[in-house]
Write a structure and sequence with these properties.
This protein is mostly beta strands. The chain contains no helices and 12 strands.
């Protein structure tokens, strides 16, 4: 997976590249520059190597305006999102857990990729949470609330909570006053 982007804001694009070694289950993100006809590694960091491939690599900005790269990757039947940006001269991946070698915090049972759900110019990660009452339901019968999160000061913050219908292309935004206080049922035959 790769992307040309300007993470260091020097008005020159760098090459952001992820090398996945599926045999060793390791992955490394690298930021490469071209100077005097020579490719140089500006910075690198570890990332989740237990993924099977990459769904999306996108340039965006964080809430503080800092340029970043969001990488959505296939993991099992679901996905994860990793976020990369420069902190000084270091490439950082704040959602990556060095102890486990994974990015479990953004793992979800869906392959939906990050998007700018609220139009603020920052990508949002679609995190799924099972609605109350569906804990024992079969996987196909489960209903999830989607909490769109973005990175702020190294932590995920919810920007929007919604009930999504990807099949029919619409969603219902959950007001903060009701968030965590509701559940729902669905009737597949009546499409309600």
């Amino acid at each position: 997976a790769f992307l040309r982007t300007d993470l260091d804001t020097d008005q020159k694009k760098e090459l952001f590249l992820i090398n996945l070694n599926s045999t060793d289950k390791t992955a490394t993100a690298r930021l490469l520059t071209l100077e005097n006809d020579t490719i140089t590694e500006k910075a690198s960091c570890r990332c989740d190597g237990s993924v099977s491939g990459y769904l999306s690599v996108a340039a965006t900005k964080l809430l503080n305006g800092k340029p970043a790269v969001f990488v959505d990757a296939q993991k099992g039947t679901g996905a994860i999102t990793e976020v990369f940006y420069l902190d000084g001269e270091s490439l950082v991946n704040p959602l990556f857990d060095r102890e486990t070698g994974t990015t479990a915090i953004s793992e979800r049972p869906s392959t939906k990729i990050s998007s700018d759900i609220n139009g603020d110019g920052t990508l949002d990660i679609p995190m799924l949470e099972l609605l109350p009452g569906y804990e024992d339901a079969a996987e196909n019968d489960r209903i999830y609330i989607t909490r769109f999160c973005t990175l702020n000061n190294g932590s995920l913050v919810v920007t929007l909570s919604a009930l999504m219908n990807y099949t029919d292309g619409y969603y219902f935004t959950i007001p903060k006053a009701l968030d965590g206080r509701i559940t729902l049922t669905r009737n597949i035959e009546a499409r309600t």
